Amino acid sequence: MKAGAKAAAKAPARSAAAKGKAGASKAGPAKDHRSLCPINLVLEVVGDNWSLLIVRDLMFRGHSSYQAFLRSEEGIATNILADRLLRLEQNGLISKAQDPADARKFIYALTEKGADLAPLLVEMTLFSNRHAARIDMPKEVVADMQRNKSAFTARMIRSCSPKRRARTNKAEPGEVPDETLSLF
Fold first, then answer.
1. 3-60 tens-digit pLDDT
2. 34-169 maps to which CATH number?
3. Which run of H or E residues covers position 103?
4. pTM of the predicted model, to two decimals?
5. Which of 5, 73, 96, 161 can pair with 112 through a Cys bridge, CB separation 3.0 to 4.6 Å?
6. Cα angle 181, 183, 184; round to 5
């Protein structure tokens, strides 16, 4: 028997009930996962080297086009960018729409599910701020995150989430509507 076949034979088979439970979750259609550990489930969607950077660019930098993502300083290759955009769209984290100004181009935006990654990105930023010698983010923004993480995160989610953004754009009399945040 080959090594791969031995490993498959040793691995416990998931029961039909367990498979059904996994498919019935909020995540969408049934899909085999390495495990149902909540950290694993997030990493399966955004745990590669590029996906969270694309989400970062959408959320913090206001990027919305393929070319804008290519211009990010990390230097993502075109084939990797196309693959990650497709995977993020398939996992419901971003949406893709035709650019009304140029039908050959697309505009990408975070979905409500994608905007819900804001707390994770804020925590990662604060972790880097504590443990890296230097980070590339304005000190005022980091100070705002540190001062009130939950309020900062709520603003990010509101500014990025299509449903929540639509609700917040309807300002009450005397209230200033939220605007898209750009942190870089």
1. 444 444 444 444 334 444 444 445 454 478 889 999 999 999 999 999 999 999 999 9
2. 1.10.10.10
3. strand 102-110
4. 0.71
5. 161
6. 135
Q: Where are the domains of the chain?
A: 34-169
> Residues 38-51, buried b or exposed e (16+ Cβ, 10 A)?
eeebeeebbeeebb
Closest of 65, 164, 53 to residue 109, by C-alpha: 65
Q: How many CA atoms lie within 13 A of 11 on its CB side?
A: 11
Non-local (6+) Cβ contacts of 133 within 8 A are none
What tokens does 50 get?
């590029």
List C-alpha distances in Å: 48 to 122, 124, 156.
Answer: 18, 15, 23
Can you tell me which residue has the tokens 């990027």? 63
Closest CA to 44 of 52, 53, 54, 34: 34
Q: How far apart are CA 84 and CA 79, in angstroms?
A: 9
